[in-house]
Amino acid sequence: MRIGLVCIRGSVPAFENFGFLPTDIVGSNGLVNGSRAHRVLDGIIIPGGSIVESGSLSPELAFEIRRMASDGKFVLGICSGFQALAERTDIGRKSPCPVYREGLGLLNVTFHPMISNDRVEATITGESFLTSGMSGERITGFHCHTYGEIRGDAPEIMRSRIVRADYHERPGEILSGVCSDDGNVAGTMVHGCLDENQALVSNILKFLDADETARERILEANRKLREALRSELGISTGIRVMDRGGTRGTPPAIMIASTGSDSGKTFILTGLAGALRRRGLRVGVIKVGPDVRDIVPALYLIKEPMEEHSSIRIGRLGWMELRDVLESVRGRYDIILIEGVMSILTGLLNDITPYSGAEIALAAGIPVIMVAGCSKGGIESAVVDLDAHISVLEGLGLEVSCGILNRVYDMDIFERASGGRYLAIPRVEMSERGGTPEVELKLEDFCLKAMETVEEHLDVDTLISFAKKPEFRGYMGPEEIKKVFSP
Fold first, then answer.
1. N or C: which end of the chain has fewer CB within 10 A?
2. Residue 245's pLDDT is what?
3. Is 0.70 surpassed by the pTM of this model?
4. 62-119 residue pLDDT tens
5. Annotated domain spans of the chain
6. How do strand 156-165 and strand 119-124 relate by DSSP bridges?
7. What DSSP letter does each residue of 286-334 carry, written as one string?
8. How far is CA 102 from the centre of its chain?
9. Which CATH superfamily is domain 3-230 in?
10. CA–CA gap between residue 14 and residue 78 (Å, rounded)
């Protein structure tokens, strides 16, 4: 029994282990070790990522997927892999007019902009190779998508309970999985569904008539496949990595925070994660708040899965409480990189505790690298913004290790404005539209450019030396915060 995993530029097989099922890599040419996929595989899994946005499904790969579907073999798409199986996806979230990417047309649905980043519980509502005999049962996983509104006539197989959509409280059930009329092609928006729900994995193995011997062979082949995937940064980069060895106890951590959204913290965190992984370190990447899409580029580059501890809860938003996150990461990584949310001060004066990145860093003694972008207000304003933020943070008792001005367009002005207080990253020209997960993004280009930029312009050894072992010590109360913020 052989199960293929599509592993092309823009796909994120590291997001999950797919229930330890895949045994072979299917390249963009549709080949598996030189053989056409439909001739050697019994099924294929298409993972999430940016394969729809980047248009990276080649005609050769598309042919193989269609052929496997027509031959009655199973085809499973997850998130953007699901979108690739659909009729088309409108990726024009920032456009007043639809911007369509055509899919393979194997599932009679279309996708439209709708952001969801919840941990979810989904109810099985229909029959397919994936959900056979499970009607009414509930499964768990997570959503991590920008284009999640599904319209069409394909038979539905699951609906997810969500709390938020498009950054607003919007509790309810949404369609999150469908199948073909024959039931051998299915798509779901629920990441982690195979890892967290053994019944789905068992259904796939039953569909393949896999006996115990075949299952053992699949598990062993998957182990070797995962080792091969983890030995390379990104997809098809040729950059090989080796683990130095694990660490005991709680790993040191540092937060990449900013003076506001679109400052470049995602870019810097991604580049730093790649630089550290290249050195053989096992890097944990975590987001403050619920928008885990921001850490997808880093996870894609370093081949780490999305975990429940990947999102630190603030207020009612996010997945796991800080105290539990710190316990969950013990012994698993050599260093933890935490990406802040909006400005590190945003939400600081909310009566709900915690509600800001500053409170998270302060509660666990996590040092902070502050980032300010120069695109909107210029270099001078960025310096003033950094000065003001750092003053408040230090008043709270938070350790700010350094400040970085991002997208610096004139080094002379930077030197005069910063007076040597801060570091600089020059403006980077991206070959493709978009530098954040909010818009169309080619993961490979973004990730490699981020790593190249960080390694060229920052002293990585110095930055990681700032990291300290976090220890939860409780949150500062609202009244105490107000006294510091408004003395």
1. C
2. 67
3. yes
4. 999 999 999 999 999 999 999 999 999 998 877 778 888 899 999 999 999 999 999 9
5. 3-230, 253-485
6. antiparallel
7. EEESS-GGGGHHHHHHHT----GGGEE-BTTBSSB-HHHHHHHTTTT-S
8. 23
9. Class I glutamine amidotransferase (GATase) domain (3.40.50.880)
10. 13
